[in-house]
Design brief:
By secondary structure, the protein is an alpha/beta fold. Helices cover 49% and strands 15% of the residues. The chain has nine helices and seven strands.
Length: 246
């Protein structure tokens, strides 16, 4: 029996890419997974996949920017399963453009989903975790939140802020046995990076010591470790997982 048997895990941006990789990995270890995403069709498909594998899933078609909808979704999960043990703030978007051409909309939407979305989710879950006196929150940041990246002033800022959010919150809630961590992936093969021009992808790979793109499973492996009791003395840290890029 896995240590995640019957643990209740909420993953945002869970219908594809890294989020789906994380949700599937938790499900394979026996956890119940609540999938949050804006892509309703994919969401239902992925819920079906988990159920076909014998797992339990809830599909919640929610935009993490919609504070009221987020609150209702969290209440629904707690109503169905009696609680939430792990929250993975993974939903994220890019609107890459050199700063001089970046629009207010590019800035607001990226900060809105990547940073405020994680705030909304955490705000909705934290009181419950405090009462429960246990919980794990994993925020999916990025190496560019540590290094910066041309064309990503909005995205890199959102990811750097997530790291600061992680470290601050960890210090506030550690006494209640809630651990908060961030993961900073490098170049991971998903639909998000698929759309990059070939020369950009090649340049990322050349900078990666292991000379391959990471996979959602690589990221899921780290998320599961950090969420497990094996990591019970870890909190407030950011883990780079980039195949040796930075
Ligand atoms: P992706 O675009 O393949 O998947 C993102 C998912 O989030 C999609 O299913 C999308 O529908 C969902 N989503 C977007 N906006 C949402 C919203 N407002 N509310 C709810 N769901 C929403 O991206 P990915 O590559 O799997 O990235 C996942 C996370 O990992 C992101 O936070 C991203 O910034 C981060 N990350 C990715 C890489 C990479 O190389 N792919 C590297 C570092 C960090």
């Amino acid at each position: 029996m896995s240590e995640f048997s019957d643990k209740r895990v909420l993953v945002t941006g869970a219908s594809r890419g890294i989020g789906w990789g994380i949700a599937r990995a938790f499900s394979e270890e026996g956890a119940k997974v609540a999938l949050i995403d804006v892509n309703e069709e994919l969401l239902e498909e992925k819920k079906g996949e988990i159920e076909n594998m014998g797992g339990s899933a809830l599909a919640l078609n929610v935009d993490v920017c919609d504070r009221e909808a987020v609150k209702k979704a969290v209440e629904k999960v707690i109503e169905e399963w009696g609680g939430i043990d792990v929250l993975v703030n993974n939903a994220g978007i890019t609107r890459d453009r050199l700063f001089i051409r970046m629009t207010d909309g590019d800035w607001d939407s990226v900060i809105g989903v990547n940073l405020t979305g994680a705030y909304n989710m955490t705000k909705a879950v934290i009181n419950h975790m405090l009462r429960q006196r246990s919980g794990v929150i994993v925020n999916i940041s990025s190496v560019v939140g540590m290094t910066g990246n041309p064309g990503q002033a909005n995205y890199a800022s959102s990811k750097a802020a997530l790291i600061a959010f992680t470290k601050s919150l960890a210090k506030e809630v550690g006494s209640r046995n809630i651990r908060v961590m961030a993961i900073a992936p490098g170049f991971i093969a998903t639909e998000m990076t698929e759309k990059l021009p070939d020369d950009v992808k090649k340049a990322y790979l050349e900078r990666t010591a292991l000379r391959r793109a990471g996979t959602p499973q690589d990221i899921a492996n780290l998320v599961l470790f950090l969420s497990s009791d094996r990591a019970s003395f870890i909190t407030g840290q950011v883990y780079v997982i980039d195949g040796g890029m930075i």
